[in-house]
Amino acid sequence: MAKTNMNMLSGSLWDKIFIFAIPLAITGVIQQIFNATDVAIVGHYVGKHAMAAVGCNTPVVALMVNLFIGIALGINVVSAGFIGLNDREKISRTVHTGYAVVLVLSIFISAVAILCSSYIMGLLNVPSELMDQASLYFKIIMAGLPLTAVYNCGAAVFASHGDTRTPLLCLTIAGIINVVLNIFFITCLNMKVEGVAIATVAASAVSALMLIFFLRKDETFSFSLRQFTPDRAIMNRILKIGLPASLQGMVFSLSNTCIQSAINSLGADVMAASAAAFNIEILVYFLLNSFGQAATTFIGQNYAVGNIKRCFEITRVCLWQNMILTLLLSGFLLYFARTFLLLFTDDPDVIEIGRLRLMFILLPEGINVLLEVMSGAMRGYGRSLTPAMMALAGICGIRIIWVYTVFSRSPDFAVLMTCYPVSWFFTTLAIIIAYIRFKNRHLIPLTVKQHG
């Protein structure tokens, strides 16, 4: 592989942040295609009940995956700091410690999730006619959870020194394999939900193994399968940043799981429509989230060497680029909403419900830009707990209260969807206030001291 290290400590930022974030966003999109392909293929070849069975798993699967995305972010920040200091020994220790933590934890959670699958399906209020298919899909996907966790860990390691293209290459190849296997299992072997689940796990294995192969070739990290002994001090630093980030991601998924339970109570058409719309709207989330991760990584390196003014500039650039691109993509998806929904189903009732959901989610996405970039910046400074706690109260708290109060009194789909923009608004307001206070109390005094 050609060297793809990026100098984040000097030079222009507009081009570097863009080059970093866009492959990261595309990587997220391709990863989501795993699930979107499952939903689309079973929707067309098996039926809307199978489509609903696959789709209703999305929030709870995301809940599990977000735990490891958060830990991977902790690995990213710690590794980026050591890269900024050019401490090669600690870079290597960070990578090996991160992989050790991810492997042990993912295997444990995978086993627990499989054992508790029936209970989890019950919590989701999955209708009895969908229970067997939904549970089978969930068990197979959870069996492959360690593979997804290993991929996310490796992607975070590469991103810590500016390489977001290698993970994209691995996932692109895996995505093609996933589509081919989906079609083969469904059309040739007459499988149903188990076929698309097995295809997704197989593709995850390919992406994880390819990334490990390239990691071993990269001299920056000195990665070896024989050096998996964790460093306790580095592990604590990873978990200090990673666990709150995991909590924040899991809070989003937990609240969405609660909303999914409410959606399931509205019937198979609403379940299928939400599954289809989710796989469209999530494309915007991956874009805006990629700039949040860019803020984390770039600030992580620059904060480690004390370059505070550059950290401020990084935040501004991420906000502007993110806002412009997010609003453009949201408008494009809304304009062609019916066309995109037809990729998943030709049922007119399902399409209309899906269009309604997309309007509630995509129109206020500008608020989410502020939420993601400010949260990402705070994590780059090592303040991961603050945005996590605010997300717990503002995202999870508001949405759960909304479901059990407002929605329970008016069980209408539009009423349910209103909880998304409401929760985004109040959480974003709180995080902006927290960021300004942190900047005024801790960061500006540092710049004054540096130039005093």
Structure report:
By secondary structure, this protein is an all-alpha fold. It has one domain (14-450). The chain contains 18 helices and no strands. The protein has helices at residues 14-45, 48-55, 58-85, 88-115, 117-123, 128-143, 145-159, 165-188, 193-217, 232-264, 268-304, 308-335, 337-341, 348-362, 365-380, 385-409, 413-417, 419-450. Helix 3 (58-85) packs parallel to helix 7 (145-159). The chain is globular and about 65 Å long. The N and C termini lie far apart (45 Å). The model has no long low-confidence stretch (mean pLDDT 84).
Radius of gyration based on Cα positions: 21 Å
Q: Choose one word for the global shape.
A: globular
Unreliable stretches covering 5 or more consecutive residues: none
SSE pattern, N- to C-terminal:
HHHHHHHHHHHHHHHHHH
Q: Mean pLDDT, rounded to whole units?
A: 84
Number of strands: 0
Helix residue percentage = over 70%
Proportion of beta-strand residues: under 5%
- The number of domains: 1
Terminal residue distance? 45 Å
Helix count equals: 18
Largest beta-sheet characterization: none
Structural class: mainly alpha
GO cellular component, one term: plasma membrane
Protein name: Multidrug-efflux transporter
Keywords: Antiport, Cell membrane, Ion transport, Membrane, Transmembrane, Transmembrane helix, Transport
InterPro entries: MATE_fam, MATE_MdtK, MdtK-like
